[in-house]
Amino acid sequence: MTAAAREEGGPLVVVGAGVMGTGIATLALVHGVPVTLVDLDRAVLDRAEVAIARNLRTAALLGAAPPDTAPGALTTSTSLPDALTGSTAVAVVEAVTEDPATKAAVLARVSAAVPEGTPLISNTSSIPIDELAAAVARPADLLGTHFMNPAYLITTVEVVPGPRTAPDVVASATKLLGELRRTPIVVRDSPGFVTSRLLHPMINDAARLVEEGVASVEDVDALMQGCLGHPTGPLRTADLIGIDNLVDALDVLHLRTGDERSRPCGLLVAKVRDGHHGRKSGRGFYDYEEALP
Predict the structure, then answer these.
(1) Residues at the annotated binding site?
(2) Which of 25, 45, 120, 162 could disulfide-pair with 129, CB 3.0 to 4.6 Å?
(3) pTM for the full model?
(4) Whole-number Å distance between alpha carbons of 62 and 154
């Protein structure tokens, strides 16, 4: 973040208004940071505004909002150039789909439009940051984060500098996370980093057990909760992550590590094919009354 941007109250620009983008936007807003949320689809932005309003209420009810801080102002835009023209952004968070080519294309456009030294943050669960750095004008400005869903409630964030990330950019990003009352844990760049490298193959294994008829969805989750202390169960966690995002991340891990445990099992692939993506679609391993945007 640039000192000038912070002094002038520059916004956090979030590109991508899906579940993660709305969660990250909520986190910033709840701590008084203005947000410009960008998505090419106006309908997606309209749903995101509704979700953010709901998230802000939830954060307040659960004590996740500082009681003495007024929420930041939210601006939305369907034009990335318009959102970045004359930018004084504190940082730009890319939160589009977990696809390397899509993320690289967005980051390339962002890096061409913002001043040198503005942190470019790719929120990714699996893609190596140095791989994405090949697409940007200034690899020193790029680093990764892995916010967990819901970002406005989970207080620990994985931070991933690439080999070419500048130390002052890491310092700026971790300072911003501190202002958002998040605990940043910095890890070395690699496919899946720490959390996805451990969690995603485990979820894949859990889905495979259901596919093989070893146990029901409910019983797999109950056993993991009751016997091993997993807070929600792996399959309910898959619904929260988004099964489509999970499969994309598993594909990245399998391709880059060769680990067969990361090859998405047939049940996960079938759910993606059928549009059963989890909470955001209203149906995944479980059914939900309301789909998330």
Answers:
(1) 16-21, 39, 98, 103, 125, 149, 280
(2) 162
(3) 0.91
(4) 12
Residues in the annotated binding site for NAD(+): 16-21, 39, 98, 103, 125, 149, 280
The answer to whether the beta carbons of residues 93 and 116 sit under 8 Å apart is: no
The pLDDT assigned to 112 comes to: 94
Ramachandran area for residue 229 (φ above 0: left; ψ -120 to 50: alpha; else beta): left
What residues does 110 pair with on adjacent strands? none
Q: For 80-135, how does the pLDDT look when each residue is reduced to its tens digit (9 = 90+)?
A: 999 998 778 999 999 999 999 999 999 999 999 999 999 999 999 999 999 999 99
The catalytic residue among 31, 146, 200, 277 is 146
Within 8 A by CB and 6+ apart from 169, the residues are 117, 119, 140, 141, 142, 143, 161
Query: Check: CATH 1.10.1040.10 for 195-279?
Result: yes
Active site residue 146: yes
Write down the domain spans for the chain: 3-186, 195-279
Q: Count how many residues are written for the chain.
A: 293
Low-confidence ranges of the chain (pLDDT < 70): 1-9, 291-293
DSSP 117: T
Note the pLDDT of residue 292.
Answer: 67
Distance CA 94, CA 123 (A): 6
Q: What is the pLDDT of residue 19?
A: 93
In terms of DSSP bridges, do strands 156-161 and 142-146 run parallel, antiparallel, or are they unpaired? antiparallel
